[in-house]
Amino acid sequence: MVTKAEADAAGGLLLEVITPGRTVLRQRVESVLLPALDGYLGIMSGHAPLVAGLAPGVLLYGPKGREKARMAVSGGLAEVAENHVRVLADAAELPEEIDVGRARAALERAEERLRRWDWQVDVARAEMAMRRALARLRAVYGKEARDEGAFAPGERHLGEQ
Ligand code: ATP
């Protein structure tokens, strides 16, 4: 595990992603893209301090201007201070940890609830479940997640980013 001092010395950021059960990631990176509530937030070394709410989505991290690694976060909070990006989330997974079948089933369940549109459905809850499932599928497949078989062709969804 890299220390904060080592990350500083190398001119990068220390990215930490922490959930109640575990530290999912602690790594030195050049750049982080956070799925903030109002859109993606790009963070590089020297960024001003901030606290931002996160939506369920894909967090990208890695080298500047080149392909980045992905991970799913269920929403939460990000804090940036002194080249340290700390993400606190209820749940977060690396692509290799994601059970695709479970995410597809969660997506189908949420979509079925939203299609029903009756008064018993907690729409906000179903929408958040759908976004978490989509984030997991996108962390595995990228933006093409919808082409991977779980989705009705041409369907538009509230969770599209
Ligand atoms: P589900 O309905 O399948 O439980 P969920 O979105 O309600 O999905 P969360 O409440 O976000 O699940 O997560 C509960 C725990 O299960 C967390 O530890 C999370 O990392 C893990 N988890 C949820 N879905 C998956 C998945 N598809 N693959 C791996 N881990 C998952």
Task: Provide the fold topology.
Elements: H1 4-9, E1 13-18, E2 23-29, E3 31-36, E4 39-44, E5 50-54, E6 57-62, E7 69-73, E8 76-81, E9 84-89, E10 92-93, H2 100-116, H3 123-141
Parallel strand pairs: 1-9
Antiparallel strand pairs: 1-2, 3-4, 3-6, 5-8, 6-7, 7-10, 8-9
Helix pairs in contact: 2-3
The structure holds adenosine-5'-triphosphate.
Question: The CATH topology of the largest domain is what?
Answer: ATP Synthase, domain 1
Q: What is the overall number of helices?
A: 3
Q: Which sequence of SSEs, written as H and E, runs from N to C? A: HEEEEEEEEEEHH
> How many DSSP E strands?
10
How much of the sequence lies in strands comes to 25-35%
The stretches of 5 or more residues where confidence is low (pLDDT under 50) are: 148-161
Small molecules held by this entry: adenosine-5'-triphosphate
Instruction: Give the biggest sheet.
Output: 5 strands, mixed
Distance between the termini: 33 Å
Classify the helix fraction into a percent range: 25-40%
Q: Superfamily at the CATH H level of the largest domain?
A: F0F1 ATP synthase delta/epsilon subunit, N-terminal
Kindly report the spatial arrangement of strands forming the biggest sheet: 2-1-9-8-5
Instruction: Give the overall pLDDT as a whole number.
Output: 87
What form results from the Cα inertia axes? elongated
Overall structural class, as computed from helix and strand content, comes to alpha+beta
* Count of all domains: 2
CATH class value of the largest domain = Mainly Beta
